[in-house]
Amino acid sequence: MAREVILYIGVSLDGFIAKEDDDLQWLEEVEGEGDTGYTAMYETIDTTIMGKRTYDYVMEHAESFPYPDKKNYVFTTSEKGSTEYVDFVKEDVVEFTKKLKKQEGTKIWMVGGSGILDAFVKENLIDEYIITVTPHILGSGIPLFKEKNPQINLTLIDTKRFGQFVHLHYKVK
Question: How do strand 154-162 and strand 165-172 relate by DSSP bridges?
Answer without folding.
Answer: antiparallel
